[in-house]
Amino acid sequence: MRSSGRNSSGNSGGGKSGGRGNFRGAGGGASRPKAGGDRDDKQKRTGKPRPEERRYDVGGSSEGSRGGPAKGRGAAARGGAKGGPRQSPQRDSGRRTAPARSREYDARTEERNRERYADKPQVKTPKTAGDQEGERLQKVLARAGMGSRRACEELIEAGRVELNGQIVIEQGVRVDPDKDEIKVDGLTVATQSHLFFALNKPAGVVSTMEDPDGRQCLGDYVTNRETRLFHVGRLDTETEGIILLTNHGELAHRLTHPKYGVKKTYLAAIQGPLPRELGKRLKDGIPLEDGYARADHFRVVENTGKNYLVEVTLHEGRKHIVRRMLSEAGFPVDKLVRTSFGPIGLGDQKSGWLRRLTNTEVGMLMKEVGL
């Protein structure tokens, strides 16, 4: 009796049989594999879930992590990344922390410290060298134009810097530029608060800082200066040459005081012939209306026919002193130029030009009058 294919398919394991039932019930290698079966097996082997099976309840409630219903994606997954950003592990809450101190405790501590140091005298240091409120010595030197800070430190190390008469070799000493006396190689260093200029005054300029008549004056050459300057001495309107401008009152006073005898040198153009005894007469003294006037030095610089160019040096500063002396000796002055004021020379400075004195020149001026 013939058996049906369904019954035979259940008994036979590997024979050929037709029908749909034989294919579904077939096992082993005779069956055709499902589409995507290898991918499912690979994901099962690696243990990674499918994208549609992944969970996004990171950071959610504890029920979702235990298998309960998840309550949304959680706060940690709101950044947009799969699974959300990683969260740092929470610190151990069982560790003990130091209790915060109360304000009353801090107040009692402060009061106890005040009582402890109440009886001790306070030491008041002078606001000069060594004071923490002053400026470092190398910084003051650098600002005064003595070089870079490193170069000024080398000056200090070489023992070339004096502070209030004492040689300084220690770095970082603090000073007060307005009170302390600072010298380099024996010359006083001018601080930034003091300004020193030399002007080659042209003829026709009045030796005042302001002129009520509107004539050209010295103030016209320093109109853009914020600090008020004043001239050291005077030159008459027709006399040319060097004139100093500064805001250092004591220096200006000493440079013009007869006690310090600062010498000024002039070049005068006169007409000859000149007698040989003219220099001796000027040095011995020429009688003037306000007393005798004596020259410290006299020499003939140039002679072209009857035209003579003579140099006169004197330490007096009376009005029109050189013109009056030569005129009294019988030789009126055609042109007069002051070529030096103390150690500061006119050099090749052009007429009408203003220049700032160097630190060396300022130091020489101060040394000249004992500053």
DSSP helix fraction: 10-25%
How far is the first residue's CA from the last residue's CA?
A: 146 Å
> Helix count?
11
CATH superfamily of the domain at 196-258 and 350-368: Pseudouridine synthase I, catalytic domain, N-terminal subdomain
CATH topology descriptor of the domain at 196-258 and 350-368? Alpha-Beta Plaits
CATH architecture of the domain at 196-258 and 350-368: 2-Layer Sandwich
Compute the average pLDDT.
75
Order of helix and strand elements from N to C terminus = HHHHHEHHEEEEEEEEHEHEEEEHEEEH
Care to describe what's here?
The chain is of the alpha+beta class and 371 residues long. Among the domains are: 135-188, RNA-binding S4 domain (Structural Genomics Hypothetical 15.5 Kd Protein In mrcA-pckA Intergenic Region, Chain A, Roll), CATH 3.10.290; 196-258 and 350-368, Pseudouridine synthase I, catalytic domain, N-terminal subdomain (Alpha-Beta Plaits, 2-Layer Sandwich); 264-341, Pseudouridine synthase. The chain is 24% helix and 19% strand. A hairpin with a 2-residue loop joins strand 15 (335-341) and strand 16. The radius of gyration is 51 Å and the shape is elongated.
